[in-house]
Design goal:
With 487 residues, the chain is mainly alpha-helical. The chain has a domain of 335 residues: Hydantoin permease. Helix 4 runs parallel beside helix 11, helix 8 packs across helix 9 and helix 8 packs antiparallel against helix 16. The two termini are 28 Å apart.
Length: 487
């Protein structure tokens, strides 16, 4: 008799460029350990963008070091928690995160969050990280920043183009190298930091605290729409609790350590937030400084390889039909080209620090209500299959998800947004000539609560389709990518 269990776990690893798009990963292609996710979600956070979240908490939001760390830990913990939960969803169906999002939004409704994530991941984050990597490489080698940008982008695109298995391998070894360098760099920064430095009068600011927590949440949760993209190759029998711990801890530990380094660096006398990379490395011995600049460059590549890989997945999840066998790889290449020009335009942007602060908060603004919808939707669908719902057919409709998402997003932004370019109603009323932070920023938490509370009400009123009860047939993973010629 055929050994069915052995067949289900026999890996068929991709040895060249990963083919296909967003089709489900079949049982025969499943492989890997859940603890590989620890490295997967550690490496992309070992970059200067993470450090700068800590910098802005002290230098821009006026918090002392320990106040800043409390806000940063809380915000990061929330984003890491949801990262762990969402990562557990990948193995059951073998599907990417924004494909799974179709249950909550419907096929056409899912175009909205998938398109937002495409722009944020494949273009927004790509530009932010490429700029920091290019500046670090330029400082290290003396080459022009534009040439540094070209080098960084080419490597980022190459890793994402090859695909999942090579990307996971790259993240694993990057986490070892970057982790060692940044631990040394963080210790060096701590030795020079002034943890008792008073900031703007030394008074605790609830506004600065909420802004810092929101920025940290935006950074950590920025990976949430990618979560199952990197767990979908794991065998369906993998324990969810192990997946959650591995992904969540990888995200949490790496973020907190580097944010702490950034917050500590901002307390060093003479620190200039307008030139953060140079200021961060200024107090380091030459060898450690150079290694840190190398790590900043490689960290940007580690982060952006995942950004454009998952950006391509989101692009396909929005319903874009491409027949090429290497459609995911080709889309990743296209994002790399477009992202390069966006990053190039940002190189000489003198308001880059303010733009990054705004960017972090905007990420939290849309991800929070999206999380409110998809988490509650998953709960409401417990015990049912979803493979019949997340196909490429547009027959599945779920306006409840779209309405709840828009309600949470619009109301929270209109009332609580605290951006340099837009202030919500309550924030605008709290601002004064001497207080630029007002009441702070509660947009993310309000958006999440509104979406999570309104979705079950709309779900019961509009009655979107539910899948059949989970059964033995669930072990057979069906393809969902209609553009796959092999499906």
């Amino acid at each position: 008799m055929t050994d069915t269990a052995a067949i289900l776990v026999t890996p068929e690893r991709t040895t060249t460029i990963e083919p296909g798009g967003i089709e489900a990963i079949s049982a025969g292609r499943r492989h890997g350990s859940p603890w590989q996710l620890f490295a997967t979600w550690t490496a992309p956070n070992l970059e200067f963008a993470t450090i700068f979240v800590g910098v802005i908490a002290v230098a821009f939001f006026g918090l002392g070091f320990w106040q800043a760390m409390l806000a940063l830990v809380l915000g990061t913990a929330a984003g890491a928690l949801t990262q762990g939960i969402l990562s557990t969803w990948g193995p059951r169906e073998g599907l990417a995160q924004m494909v799974l999002s179709r249950t909550a939004f419907g096929y056409r409704g899912n175009i909205l969050p998938a398109a937002i994530n495409t722009v944020m991941a494949g273009l927004g984050w790509f530009a932010v990280n490429s700029v920091s990597g290019a500046f670090a490489l330029s400082t290290l080698t003396g080459i022009p920043v534009v040439l540094g940008l070209v080098i960084v982008v080419v490597i980022e695109v190459a890793v994402a183009f090859i695909g999942h298995d090579f990307l996971q391998l790259f993240e694993r070894y990057s986490s070892y190298i970057l982790g060692a360098i940044f631990v040394v760099a963080t210790i060096t920064i701590f030795l020079h930091a002034d943890f008792g430095l008073a900031q703007k009068g030394g008074n605790f600011s609830i506004a600065g605290f909420t802004l810092a927590a929101g920025a940290a949440f935006g950074y950590a949760a920025g990976w949430n729409p990618y979560a199952s993209d990197y767990s979908r190759y794991l065998p369906a029998s993998t324990k969810p609790i192990t997946i959650a711990w591995a992904a969540g801890l990888g995200n949490f530990i790496s973020c907190v350590v580097l944010m702490a380094a950034g917050a500590a660096a901002a307390t060093i006398a003479g620190f200039n937030p307008g030139s953060p990379t140079d200021s961060f490395t200024a107090s380091m011995p030459t060898v450690i400084r150079d290694l840190t600049l190398v790590a900043i460059t490689v960290g940007a590549i580690a982060a952006n390889s995942m950004n454009i890989y998952s950006g391509a997945m989101s692009f396909l999840a929005a319903g874009i039909k491409i027949r090429f066998t290497l459609r995911r790889a080709i889309i990743a290449l296209g994002f790399g080209v477009i992202g390069f020009f966006i990053a190039l335009s940002a190189v000489l942007n003198e308001t880059l620090s303010v733009d990054y602060e705004n960017f972090l908060l905007v990420i939290a603004y849309w991800i929070a209500p999206w999380l409110g919808v998809v988490l509650v939707d998953r709960y409401l669908r417990r015990g049912t299959e979803i493979q019949s719902i997340v196909t490429e057919s547009p027959r599945h409709h779920n306006p409840a998800g779209v309405l709840a998402f828009l309600l949470g997003l619009v109301v929270s932004v209109l009332l609580f947004s605290n951006q340099s370019f837009f202030h919500g109603l309550f924030v605008a009323q709290s601002l004064t000539k001497t207080d630029f932070n007002g009441i702070g920023d509660y947009t993310a938490i309000v958006g999440l609560v509104i979406a999570a509370v309104s979705y079950p009400v709309l779900f019961r009123a509009l009655k979107p389709a539910l899948g059949a009860p989970l059964g033995a047939a669930q072990a057979t993973v069906a393809g969902v990518d209609a553009s796959d010629p092999t499906a």
